[in-house]
Amino acid sequence: AVSLRSTLVGQAKAWLDRTHESNMSSMVAALDSERWSQCEVSLERQMALTRLCTGLATVSAPVRNFQDDSSDDNGTGDKEKKPTANVEGVHYKVVWSCLLLVEMIMTNLSAAA
Description:
Layout: H1 2-33, E1 41-42, H2 43-54, E2 81-82, E3 85-87, E4 90-92, H3 96-112
Antiparallel strand pairs: 1-2, 3-4
Helix pairs in contact: 1-3, 2-3
């Protein structure tokens, strides 16, 4: 039992190290190529950001609130994009690196859940 546990801990540590290195490489590449211009936030990314801020990031199915019911489609089949990210009622201008970081955090939280 002890050897099985130590093997699992070793594999988990190796996986975390690889994942961290991969995320760091992706973030460095994104920051190096960042144009530092404001980008639009898709509805899907805004919903992920809202779940993260409300503590519902590990919920498997996205929780939709009543405000999102009618704003999914703008008539063209495309998801609606907003010029700013809304975090707890405050609007922020974001760049691509910021959205990439939020996506990485959400991926890591879902892997941990």
